[in-house]
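Slides due. Your pick:
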Amino acid sequence: MNSEAKKTSNPKSLSGLLPFIRPYGAQIFAAVLFLIMAAATTLAFPLALRSLIDAGFSPGDKVHQVKTLERHFAALFGVAVALGVFSAARFYVVSWLGERITTDLRNALYSHVLAQSPEFFETAQTGEVLSRLNVDTTLVQTVVGSSFSMGLRNLVMGVGALGILIWTNPYVMFQVVGVLILVVLPSLWFGRRVRKLSRASQDRMADSSSIAAEVLNAVPVVQSYSAEQREIARFTLSTEDAFETATRRAKARSALVAFIIIATSAALLWGLYQGTQAVAAGRITAGHLGQTIVYVVILAGAFAILGEVYGDLLRAAGATERIIELLEAKSPIASPTTPSPAPVPHGGSTIDFENIKFNYPSRPLHPALTDFSLDVQSGETVAIVGPSGAGKSTIFQLLLRFYDPIDGRVLIDGVSSREMSLDSLRQRIGIVPQDAVIFSSTAMENIRYGNSVASDAEIFAAAQAAFAHDFIVALPQGYSTFLGERGVRLSGGQRQRISIARAILKNSPLLLLDEATSALDSESERIVQAALESAMRNRTTLVIAHRLATVQKADKIIVLDHGRLVEQGTHSELIAQGGIYAGLAALQFNA
């Protein structure tokens, strides 16, 4: 995803919204119907006004004149009531459409982003994605729920008023139309300028959102390095850049609106001047002139509003391009069309890595795994050790199918991971990451994340198995205590035990532990290690560990170095070999 798209926005880009508009054909028909009726009622007003003026000021019986005026005023009031009803109905339906389509668009965007593989997030910035999810969809809502309807209404009124003016004053108005055509040509040039600046302005806003999201997620680090002023300066520079771009866009759009209003008004005032000359010469009545004045005002107002609406359409076109660009991002990881059946085993899963070769898309010249093969039997506990960057976490990434290997296969329970549905694959894997993820919810809901249909009793049991129950019930509201954003109200060890309880509750045949006890003190580590040993029974477990004391009882230990499997065996066997593992063990245990 590239925020610096080279193409410029075009109103035609709004056609990308058609899939979200089509389901609401009935509502759109109602909105157009009410819109046309409101416009037609507005256009009928000058005709009623002409009759009122001509009847009210014509010579004749005064009593008859009064009754005639009363009838005409009643007709005008009826027109006003009809206009109010139709306008209100149009406003409600169009507003509903704007809210509904924007909601569908946001839901589709969010669902699409969650379906992307980690490769997408290697280049996409969270702040930019949030900008498209919120700012860009809000611009689209403004157009769908307001500007487009307003533009269409004024287009109908403008064309209607122009048609009536040409019909009633053909010679003069044909001159005016010729001038209006000349107005359109410079407007197109202004429009291209506004399109480019609109897209640039939205990109600058996304940049500042990205900076804010990044810094707010790392406030403790920023403050520990006394970098507040540096980050404030960086954010200020970004927002000032966005301001400058938005100012240039506003200037161009203002010039466009001013040109349209001035040029259109000049042309219409010329037509009005000709009308007054016609009244003076006796060629038309005063009512006819009054009618002409109102239609001129309607036409001028319609063109002025259309100029503003056109600017809104240009901004929404830029937003739509950014949204469609995000929706068109294809994830290289997807469930197969016809997945192979893969029953979940009652015991642990079997795992086979066959001649795996893999490098991350963002680092194509640096292999993460090379000629990696490994067989893990059901119920085995396999520890993975090695220096940083050796490829330990990559094994977990491939098992979860966040990425696919370039060469080789990953088999789980005898079925290739590529042939399994993503849901079926990931449902059989539980994971406890090194950095525990806590959601902005209660302790109960954080544990229930492992199994959304689990009962309260099952959640209590999982918490007890992870030795989290005691500290949870000691919280102010127990299991109903809100844990704060990213679990800020808990210690590191408490967050990890919540994460372990979540994995235990999932009860999957394959358990992945990525330094699961790294955040615990010695006593808590001993207790949780015992809980994990209990949880690992009857399931296959892979453990990434830097502290070798936690994996001495593993059925098998494999040692990675620069993406290659260089040693494997039990703790005692590897010590006896005197290789990399023995060196790591000597450093840790002697220390």
The longest helix spans residues 62-114. Residues 351-590 form a domain with the Rossmann fold fold (CATH 3.40.50.300). Residues 2-8 have pLDDT under 50 and may be disordered. Strands lie at 351-358, 369-376, 381-385, 407-412, 415-416, 429-432, 510-514, 540-544, 556-561, 564-569.
